[in-house]
Amino acid sequence: MSHTEPSVTERLEETVKAVRAKVSLVPRVGVVLGSGLGAFADGLKELVKLPYETLPHLPASKVVGHAGNLCFGHVDDVPVVCMQGRVHIYEGHPMWQVVHGVRTMARLGVSCVLITNAAGGLEAGWSAGDLMIISDHLNLSGMHPLLGPNEEALGTRFPDMTNAYDTRLREQLREVSKAEALPLREGVYAALSGPSYETPAEIRMLRTLGAQAVGMSTVPEVIALRHMRVRCAALSCITNMAAGLGSGELDHKEVEETAKARRADLQRLLRGWIVKAGQS
Ligand code: HPA
């Protein structure tokens, strides 16, 4: 008996249907919460939390520091959906699954998504704890979420990436940064697959290529969202200076601890931004 796998679009419809059966809120803004940053979702008003394992096709991350919940609620009067935890390329999931959460948010109706992550810093003069607006990316992961037949129902075969990190959304982040007196860096994020951290030689290469930060996430999600014409912004918490630039070895514990130490500031930024972005 032949058995055909459901298409990405069919799986998406199943996930969206399961969500809609449980929550009536139609989110306007989406947020992806990275390593050590998940707690933001717990502060949403009228919070409804759906564990990924209660929804079809949404895998939970096994990485320490990542919960696995789709969270709905309000920031002021803006309806929001948050991914509390995400899966990464290095966990071995197929690429469609790495981006299934953000595609679900897009199908639920969000007009823009802010993605957060932990990243290593590459710039002289930067330090652990700095926050950075991503202005553009280098996809060096060796992977791409749109390989294979194009899902015509989602977007075009050759999506444009010129304004992948939306100019207006970045402006709004800068406005909130000013109002909250929370300085923000801005720079290019290089995405590698991981899971090992980079070698010092790789970090020198990335600096030559024009990157200011390096990490193992975000880029698949941004590509998948731009395919669906959803506007994106992204913020990195520079949790450590990259390999060979700081003192000593890199450690996930340090990444988590730095992200947690900047959590309150990042939450202020997110709240301020959501209120602005929810109106435009
Ligand atoms: N490299 C890659 N990913 C990271 C790093 C890093 O130094 N820090 C946090 N995520």
Order of helix and strand elements from N to C terminus:
HEEEEHHEEHEHEHEHH
**Radius of gyration, CA atoms, in whole angstroms:** 18 Å
Unreliable residue runs: none
Bound molecules: hypoxanthine
Count of alpha/pi helices = 8
The computed structural class is alpha/beta
Q: Within the CATH hierarchy, at the fold level, what is the topology?
A: Rossmann fold
CATH architectural name = 3-Layer(aba) Sandwich
What's the CATH class, please? Answer: Alpha Beta
Estimate percent helicity: 25-40%
Q: How many strands, which pairing sense, and closed or not: the largest β-sheet?
A: 5 strands, mixed, barrel
Fraction in beta strands: 15-25%
Annotated CATH homologous superfamily: Nucleoside phosphorylase domain
The tally of domains stands at 1
Query: Count of DSSP E strands?
Result: 9
What does the overall shape look like? globular
Task: Label this structure with key terms.
280 residues; Rossmann fold; single chain; 8 helices; five-stranded mixed barrel; binds hypoxanthine; alpha/beta
Describe the protein's topology:
Blueprint: H1 8-22, E1 29-33, E2 45-51, E3 69-75, E4 78-84, H2 95-98, H3 100-108, E5 112-121, E6 131-139, H4 167-179, E7 185-191, H5 200-208, E8 213-215, H6 219-227, E9 231-241, H7 252-261, H8 263-277
Parallel strand pairs: 1-4, 1-5, 5-9, 6-7, 7-8
Antiparallel strand pairs: 2-3, 3-4, 5-8, 6-9
Bound molecules: hypoxanthine (HPA).
